[in-house]
Amino acid sequence: MRLLLSRPGRYVLIIAGAILLAPAVLILLMRWVNPPISAYMLRTHWQTGADGPAIHHRWTPLDDIAPCMPLAAVASEDQTFPDHHGFVWSAITDAIADNARGGSVRGASTISQQTAKNLFLWPAKSYVRKAIEAYLTGWLEVLWPKRRILEVYLNIAQFDDHVFGVGSAAQRLFGTTAAGLSPDQCAALAAVLPAPTRYSATAPGPHVRGRKTWIAGQMRQLGRGYLDDVLTR
């Protein structure tokens, strides 16, 4: 039996389908077109107002970023990045169990999820936002190669107050280019990624120094060739 819909019902389905597919169209376009701004940059600008500090952001192609930076980010944030399809289900299951016991929403985000969040969403911890993030992450993984995900992530991640992207972070924090970053500087930048407005890569406290040492050790353990398959695709 064929299900017949009224004209308003068909319009609702068309509109709903357009809303669901619109992010996919935008994400597909961004496979080749570099996003000029992210949701997190806009939020930072709105919070400080027109008279506040300027947003510092400079797009840097992945080939112009020191190889230690992608490795440091992966070592710090998502060591399964080359192999997963956007999600690490064991980590998600553990997070759900912890959240159920503690009442707070703990993340289990991959670099793919963080890219979707930073590019399109807001930082509130809620299951609604996580659901939207998961939907966008699925499209990122389908429409972008891993290399592109990592390139966009490194270009929109926040590394200091009003400083977004590795290109601006290298210049403003270390007085060098993204290509000129040393392994120690890459580890320092990766160490502040969880809370870049609270921690400093150039004046690290005990917590950041400890994270930087751990990240540097993980980078050595993973090895220089760990991301070769990702970076050559």
TrEMBL record:
Predominant cellular place of this UniProt entry's protein:
membrane
Write the record's keywords in alphabetical order, separated by commas.
Cell inner membrane, Cell membrane, Cell shape, Cell wall biogenesis/degradation, Glycosyltransferase, Membrane, Peptidoglycan synthesis, Transferase, Transmembrane, Transmembrane helix
Q: Which positions carry the signal peptide feature in this UniProt record?
A: none
- Gene responsible for this protein: mtgA
This one is known as: Biosynthetic peptidoglycan transglycosylase
Q: Supply one GO molecular-function term.
A: pentosyltransferase activity
Protein species of origin: Salinisphaera orenii YIM 95161
What is the role of the protein in this entry?
Peptidoglycan polymerase that catalyzes glycan chain elongation from lipid-linked precursors.
One of its Pfam families is Transgly
List, in alphabetical order, the GO biological process terms annotated in this UniProt record: cell wall organization; peptidoglycan biosynthetic process; regulation of cell shape
